[in-house]
Amino acid sequence: QLRLVESGGGLVQPGGSLRLSCTASDVTLDEYAIGWFRQAPGKEREGVSCISSGGGSTFTADSVKGRFTISRGNAKNTVYLEMDSLRPEDTAVYYCCANVKVVGTSSWEDYWGHGTHVTVSS
Fold first, then answer.
1. Any idea what DSSP says for residue 102?
2. Are 68 and 83 in contact (CB under 8 A)?
3. What is residue 58's predicted lDDT score, i.e. its pLDDT?
4. What would the mean pLDDT of 105-110 be, rounded to a whole number?
5. How far apart are CA 77 and CA 4, in angstroms?
6. Contact 94, 108 (CB under 8 A)
7. N or C: which end of the chain has fewer CB within 10 A?
8. Residue 63 in 3-state DSSP?
9. CA 8-101-3 angle, 5° bins
10. What is the mean pLDDT of residues 16-37?
11. Does the structure show a pLDDT above 80 at 67?
């Protein structure tokens, strides 16, 4: 079973930067589409950015476009979310998700990590 672990969250001042990591043990993430999502207190979970299997294409939400960048690590078991020019409204728990095809079927399944907290405050 695919297990994802997010790391890199913390407290940062407005305008600062953080790099989040989404890491899998014992498996390469290169063959899966990976997405970063976030959930702020009292709000629904929203998509932030995603990257296709192999990393050929990416999508970034308008709310973070130009500030957040998703990428794959050279080790192929990690996907990063580089977050620059952070704002208080970026405060949330950030989750990564892998979209995996169920073997022998036409179905897809999402695997989620437990999240990492990001707080942007002065």
1. P
2. yes
3. 94
4. 90
5. 10
6. no
7. N
8. coil
9. 30
10. 93
11. yes
Spatial distance between the Cα atoms of 3 and 28, rounded to a whole number of angstroms: 11
- Which structure tokens are listed for 41? 């207190």
d(CA 109, CA 57): 20
Token duo for residue 6:
């997010």
Q: How many CA atoms lie within 13 A of 50 on its CB side?
A: 12
Q: Which of 122, 8, 2 is nearest to 73 (CA)?
A: 8
Distance CA 36, CA 7 (A): 12
Residue 55 has pLDDT above 90, yes or no: no
Measured distance CA(56)–CA(98) in Å, rounded:
16
Q: What distance in Å separates the CA atoms of residue 52 and residue 63, rounded to the nearest whole number?
A: 20
AA letter at 104: G
**Could you report the per-residue pLDDT of 83-107, keeping only the tens digit for each?**
999 999 999 999 999 998 888 888 9
Q: How is residue 49 written in tokens? A: 């950015």
18-28 pLDDT tens trace: 999 999 987 88
Which two tokens mark 73?
Answer: 């690590």
Query: What residues are paired with 14 via a beta bridge?
Result: none
CB–CB of 7/23 below 8 Å?
A: yes
**Backbone dihedral angles phi then psi of residue 53, each to the nearest 5 degrees:** -60, 135
